[in-house]
Amino acid sequence: MGCTEIKTEKYQTRKSPAFHAKDCVGQIKKGKDGQYVSKKDASGVYKWVKVNATRKMKGKHYDTHDNSARPFRVFVSDDGAKAKKVAIYKDVHKKLGDPEDYSKLIKELTVKEVYVGKSTGHASGADHRPDQAHMFVGNSILLHVSSNKYIHIGSSIYEFQMDDKVDKYYSMVGRNDVPYPVLLGTENVYFMLETDHCYLPRSMLPANLTKAQWEDAYTYFYGWIDPANGQQRTDEQRKKDALENHATKMKGYHLIQKREF
User: Fold this and answer.
1) What is the pTM of this model?
2) CA dist 47 → 10, 22, 28, 212 (Å)
3) 246 CB contacts (<8 Å, ≥6 apart)?
4) Do the beta carbons of residue 115 and residue 26 sit within 8 Å?
5) Which of these, 231, 134, 142, lies nearest to 173 by C-alpha position?
6) pLDDT 10s per residue in the chain (261 long)?
7) 243 neighbors 200 (Cβ within 8 angstroms)
8) What secondary structure letter does DSSP report for 243?
9) Are the CB atoms for 133 and 122 separated by under 8 Å?
10) Contact predicate 196/247, CB 8 Å
11) How far apart are CA 231 and CA 201, in angstroms?
């Protein structure tokens, strides 16, 4: 049936939204006295629950980037607690030119750490100047959920397992407003794009890379630069010798929300 407004007097006069909750799973709708989200109760029945903590969450929010779109809005609490509360919303607007509508709740959770993707503009592959870096803060997000469990939010949302420790998290934005997120672990380097979600030993890349070069690590991964001598490669050479040919898929990978286009 879809999430369609019910026009009967019963639904039009009640406080909660004039929609069947089961038809609007995870979505936020306006009621007579505020915003409501459709959530499953302990019995498995979907009901309208008034939104409070998420919408009033103290802290910051970040909009992830995807080819000029902003598919997800991530709220991060800032209440001084060591553990951080996070809420992830999806943009559900359909028509080109319409404003974003972050009304579908994807996930609420408490995490150990939030790594905010930043693009400094100093990497050779960045498609913006350093003085524009503030426009790209939060272009992708990495969440350390618990133990070895992590969630990545970019053009899609997925979880994975990592028996490693985070050293740095980079998220350079290249041409067409496309982020190239790279997780630098103490042992491995993780290439976070949904089409890749894989890793290599750090030893396969030069040990003396600068921060700007780590931001641009996808040039090594795709083989455009030879990691042994730093020289540019031809397309034929890179296809043969690219590091991506030796990468291992992430452990425990699970897609939470696919890319929409």
Assistant:
1) 0.80
2) 16, 7, 12, 49
3) 200, 204
4) no
5) 134
6) 689 999 998 999 998 999 999 999 988 888 887 778 898 888 889 998 877 544 546 789 999 999 999 999 999 997 767 789 999 999 988 777 778 888 889 999 999 999 999 999 999 999 999 999 999 999 999 999 999 999 999 999 999 999 999 999 999 999 999 999 999 999 999 999 999 999 999 999 999 999 999 999 999 999 999 888 888 999 998 988 899 999 999 999 999 999 986
7) yes
8) G
9) no
10) yes
11) 21
119 C-beta neighbours (distance < 10 Å), count:
28
Contact status, residue 19 vs residue 1, Cβ threshold 8 Å: no
Distance in angstroms (rounded) separating the CA atoms of residues 216 and 127: 11
| C-alpha 227 chain-centroid distance | 28
User: By C-alpha distance, which of 156, 150, 160, 198 is closest to 179?
Assistant: 156
DSSP string across 51-108: --TTTT--EEEEE--BTTB--EEEEEE-SS-SSEEEEEEE----STTSPP---EEEEE
User: What SS3 class is residue 78?
Assistant: coil
Going by their DSSP bridges, the two strands 166-173 and 198-201 should be labelled as: unpaired
Sign for the CA dihedral angle at 95, 97, 76, 182 comes to positive
Q: Cα 28 vs. chain centroid, distance in angstroms?
A: 20
Q: What 3-state DSSP class applies to 53?
A: coil
Q: Answer whether 175's CB lies under 8 Å from 218's CB.
A: no
* Whole-number Å distance between alpha carbons of 83 and 255: 24
